[in-house]
């Protein structure tokens, strides 16, 4: 009995030491994306979770529900729900989903005024409690909101990124896999630019079983018109889901995309992922966030990867960045502090 007791004590001690070493991940917003993020992070055991929402009871209820699933899935991380920013103090990673979701007929840009006010409050909370965190923003309109978040919070640009390109690339790959009847694991692709109707699926960078997508068009394996339809459906991917749900917007795929970014940071995987990142001369732009390939490591957005763009791709990328700039100018009119 004494030996068993000692073994149990050592296991318990080791378990608690591991928990102390775990990263602290705070999720700001306990809506559909926030709850899904919490569940995925718990199952992957990426770190201890704080689920925050201003609506009292919402975060606590979802956290308790997820925690009670640990007996089934076997995860060993802590998860709490709260409406107090102090509980998020000293977070290693923060993922922001707080904001008003889209409704049928709304564009991402329609959300700008409301979500700017929300993101300013969130930025103040982060600045006061977790100034060293790696921050991933999912709130729409993504590119402008992540720019505003960085300015409001004052965090280093390499520690503030936006989730968009992973989601858009995943949608593009999914539609291609269905059209080509090819397993999605055999498809590599990138979608760059702003997260909106001007996003740029990179056909030159898209490979199916290591064969370039443009070559498949030339070989009539997929028609140009069908490819154009898929590109347009990718750009409208979020709106299509909003229309179908009627009372909500996408959450499973956005959450999975955000988790991939967090995991690359926490585990120092150095994955090259399409993210909304701060450009400082890359691709010919400075002082703006746009969707580009980024190496995500323990340093944050460690490096912007510059790929060679075809003339048409560069033109479309420029159009997309211009749309982001124009929307940020609109944000500056709503809140003049952003224009400084």
Short description:
The chain has 340 residues and is an alpha/beta fold. The protein has helices at 2-21, 32-44, 58-67, 70-73, 112-129, 142-153, 165-180, 213-218, 224-235, 237-245, 252-266, 311-334, and strands spanning 23-28, 47-52, 79-82, 93-96, 134-137, 160-162, 187-188, 191-192, 200-201, 207-208, 211-212, 271-280, 286-297, 300-304. It has 12 helices and 14 strands.
Distance between the termini: 70 Å
- Strand portion: 15-25%
* Rg from alpha-carbon coordinates: 21 Å
Number of E-state strands = 14
What sort of overall outline do the alpha carbons produce when their principal axes are compared? globular
Number of helices: 12
- How would you state the average pLDDT, rounded? 92
Q: Strand pairing plus helix content: what structural class? A: alpha/beta
Spans of at least 5 consecutive residues whose pLDDT stays below 50 are 11-20
Helix content: 40-55%
Sketch the topology as an H/E string, one letter per element: HEHEHHEEHEHEHEEEEEHHHHEEEH
- Widest beta sheet: strand line-up: 3-2-1-4-5-6
Report the major sheet: 6 strands, parallel
């Amino acid at each position: 009995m004494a030996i068993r007791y000692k073994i149990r004590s050592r296991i318990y001690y080791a378990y608690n030491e591991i928990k102390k070493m775990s990263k602290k991940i705070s999720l700001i917003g306990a809506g559909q994306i926030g709850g899904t993020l919490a569940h995925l992070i718990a199952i992957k055991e990426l770190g201890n979770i704080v689920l925050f929402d201003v609506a009292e009871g919402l975060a606590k209820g979802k956290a308790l529900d997820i925690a009670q699933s640990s007996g089934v899935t076997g995860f060993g991380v802590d998860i709490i729900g709260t409406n107090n920013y102090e509980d998020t103090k000293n977070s290693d990673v923060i993922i922001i989903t707080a904001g008003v979701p889209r409704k049928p007929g709304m564009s991402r840009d329609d959300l700008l005024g409301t979500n700017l006010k929300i993101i300013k409050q969130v930025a103040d909370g982060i600045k006061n409690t977790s100034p060293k965190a790696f921050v991933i923003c999912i709130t729409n309109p993504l590119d402008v909101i992540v720019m505003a978040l960085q300015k409001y919070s004052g965090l280093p640009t390499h520690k503030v990124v936006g989730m968009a390109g992973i989601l858009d690339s995943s949608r593009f790959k999914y539609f291609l896999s269905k059209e080509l009847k090819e397993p999605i694991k055999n498809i590599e692709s990138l979608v760059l630019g702003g997260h909106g109707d001007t996003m740029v699926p990179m056909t030159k960078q898209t490979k199916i079983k290591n064969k370039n997508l443009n070559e498949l068009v030339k070989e009539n394996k997929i028609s140009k018109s069908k490819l154009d339809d898929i590109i347009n459906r990718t750009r409208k991917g979020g709106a299509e889901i909003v229309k179908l749900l009627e009372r909500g917007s996408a959450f499973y795929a956005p959450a999975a995309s955000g988790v991939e970014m967090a995991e690359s940071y926490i585990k120092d995987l150095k994955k090259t992922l399409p993210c909304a990142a701060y450009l400082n001369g890359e691709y010919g732009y400075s002082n703006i966030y746009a969707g580009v390939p980024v190496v995500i490591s323990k340093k944050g957005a460690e490096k912007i990867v510059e790929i060679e763009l075809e003339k048409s791709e560069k033109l479309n990328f420029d159009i997309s960045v211009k749309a982001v700039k124009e929307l940020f100018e609109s944000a500056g009119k709503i809140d003049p502090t952003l224009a400084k």
